[in-house]
Amino acid sequence: MPGDSKVSPEALEQELCDRFERVVPKVVNSDSHLVWRGRNLTADCVVQIGTVPFLLRIEEGSIRECRKGLPLLRSWVFAVRGSAQGWAALWQNPPPPGWHDIFALTKRGEMVLEGNLHPLMANLQYFKDLVTLPRKGGSR
Amino acid sequence: MNTKDMEPIVGRYIRVPVMGEDCRVYFEEAGQGIPLVCLHTAGADSRQFRHLMCDEAVTGNFRVIAFDLPWHGKSYPPAGWEKREYRLTTELYVATIRAFCSALGLKRPVAMGCSIGGRIILQLAHAHGPEFRALIGIESADFQQPWYDTNWLHRSDVHGGEVCAALVSGLIAPQSPEEHRQETLWQYMQGGPGVFKGDLYFYRVDADLRGRLKGINTAVCPLYLLTGEYDFSCQPEDTRRTASAIPGVKVTIMKEVGHFPMSENPAQFRKYLMPVLEEIRQLKS
Predict the structure, then answer these.
(1) The model's pTM
(2) pLDDT digits over B158-183, tens only?
(3) Quick check: B97 and B118 in contact, CB under 8 A?
(4) Do B125 and B135 touch, CB atoms closer than 8 A?
(5) Distance (Å, rounded) from C-alpha B241 to C-alpha B100?
(6) How far is B159 from chain A (nearest CA, A)?
(7) What is the complex's ipTM, to 2 decimals?
(8) Interchain contact, A95 vs B174, CB within 8 Å
(9) Among B172, B167, B173, B170, which Cα is nearest to B149's?
(10) Any idea of the CA torsion for B202, B203, B207, B208, to the nearest 10 degrees?
């Protein structure tokens, strides 16, 4: 897998989490067209980067909360969990072949989709665009 | 009339009998010379080949013809469609292609198909090779591992066009121009309900061609397989595995394109296609 072998797994995960937190809520909420495209999605979902889960509270396409870690006994609707190297590759610009889409990653076993997938599938392009935002908005 | 801005593509309808049903098939064409019949991907239509039909380096030597399969684009489903679920099969797909070529009176055309079109190219090479001057499979393999449940494609509570497009959007290379990416997705958004799913019945269920392609004679009908490096549905290794069992087949892995080369990045695609077409042009008919 392509990646920066000089970075430790822990440091890579930390850097990816920082990028996600820094980029996704801000960019989504400042993009009125992206919010409009997600207008039919209201759900609490989990995005997990390596070992770190984020709770995303999406309300009519806006991100109301992006919280690192899951509170005890907190329910969620669907989860997208990927390995750190999977997210790192997805967010490279350009990403390497076979690592460039969430379904490319699920096919190769670097990502899983869990829970009630109906809200995800009914708003799929919006959500794919949301989780791919760090590709162009990160520090790399 | 301002002819300067008019494209050379001409569209017509033809009635084609296919397995006992009367099909009104829409096709577009441009150019003169060797007939080159183009087969679109699952759930899409012949517009995918519009760039090829406007490429004078191609149309100077080839009569490029692209048709919409029944149920797709501007070809209606056969009468009575509302009483059944659409399912494409290997037999129906082959019969449709052969009937279309026959209806147009094409003599040993070249056929080029992408995705499901690439799969059926292999079946044509296997069972009907002598009928074709050459065959070109784009994103072509005898089998590939499924990567989602096709039941999501046809539900009352998920917009079919939007979910079809969103699923296949990842098959487009990140380098492909945004305008062409979005045009490719628009084709998927316009498919009829259940049509993409019905095409994938052929792809996933009916046409596992592993071990069923013996006897392809590339001396009689040259076979070319071109696959984009960003296609994670039909991966380059799927094409290479398929080719390893076919003596004489020529394989090209295309950089910076995905599953829809002719539609998502026509400029990149032609770099790989033109040498193939030139080789075909020089074949003795």
Answers:
(1) 0.96
(2) 999 999 999 999 999 999 999 999 99
(3) no
(4) yes
(5) 31
(6) 7
(7) 0.95
(8) yes
(9) B167
(10) -150
